[in-house]
């Protein structure tokens, strides 16, 4: 009885799109204003950010260290320590994007890219999904950042990184979630 989950009877909560308009186009993100019909028949507006999606990669080398990048994030007005990540380009799969971003930002490559699922960082106002991967036995090489990227690669023992993620020393949400999932996967030996 302690582990039992009690749910209400299922109700269709789907909102039907009546109209959709892009009110601001910033290139890779667009602000949309939609009219929807609610399950109770009423109409209302929904404003959200349309995003192509992204990736986040937990790349661990043979010594058990995980690769981070430290870069200045303008919106936060500070440097942020985070796992290698980036936006999915048109026509690119999440794995292709992850491999590209890992190489560009850290110079690392890995034979295996193990999916760790997808996370929705802000489902209240964006359709962005971030696909996460574990890249074990990653091999070091020279980084190849884009010309507008200024970042440092930081290697950290995996267990220390997980501790920092779970105690609040790391604040980037995709990094915290990806580390937690990678840790669970490694503990289960999969």
Q: Which architecture of the largest domain per CATH?
A: Alpha-Beta Complex
Domain count: 2
Global structural class: alpha+beta
> Uncertain segments of ≥5 residues (pLDDT<50)?
none
Order of strands across the biggest sheet?
7-4-9-8
Q: What is the 3D shape?
A: globular
Main sheet summary: 4 strands, mixed
Q: Helical proportion?
A: 10-25%
- Strand/helix succession: EEEEEEEHEEEHH
* Strand portion: 35-45%
What is the averaged pLDDT score?
A: 94
Task: Give the N-terminus to C-terminus distance in angstroms.
Answer: 31 Å
* Annotation field: number of helices: 3
Task: Explain this structure.
- A four-stranded mixed beta sheet has the order 7-4-9-8, with helices on both faces. The protein has a three-stranded antiparallel beta sheet with strand order 1-2-3, with no helix packed on it. It has a three-stranded antiparallel beta sheet with strand order 6-5-10.
- Helix content is 20%, strand content 38%.
- The protein has 190 residues and is α+β, with helices and mostly antiparallel strands.
- It has two domains: 16-50, no CATH class; 54-187, Nucleoside Triphosphate Pyrophosphohydrolase.
- Helix 2 (158-167) packs across helix 3 (173-187).
């Amino acid at each position: 009885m302690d582990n039992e989950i009690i749910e209400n009877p299922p109700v269709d909560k789907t909102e039907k799109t009546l109209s959709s308009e892009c009110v601001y186009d910033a290139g890779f993100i667009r602000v949309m204003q939609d009219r929807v019909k609610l399950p109770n028949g009423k109409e209302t507006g929904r404003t959200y950010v349309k995003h192509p999606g992204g990736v986040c990669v937990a790349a661990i080398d043979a010594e058990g260290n995980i690769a981070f990048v430290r870069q200045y994030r303008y919106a936060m007005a500070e440097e942020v320590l985070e796992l290698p990540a980036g936006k999915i380009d048109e026509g690119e799969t999440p794995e292709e994007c992850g491999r590209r971003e890992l190489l560009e930002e850290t110079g690392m490559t890995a034979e295996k890219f193990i999916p760790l699922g997808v996370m929705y960082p802000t489902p209240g106002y964006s359709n962005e999904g971030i696909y996460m991967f574990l890249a074990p036995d990653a091999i070091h090489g020279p980084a190849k950042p884009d010309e507008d990227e200024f970042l440092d690669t930081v290697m950290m023992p995996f267990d220390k990184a997980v501790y920092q993620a779970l105690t609040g020393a790391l604040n980037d949400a995709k990094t915290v979630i990806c580390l937690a999932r990678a840790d669970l996967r490694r503990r289960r030996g999969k």
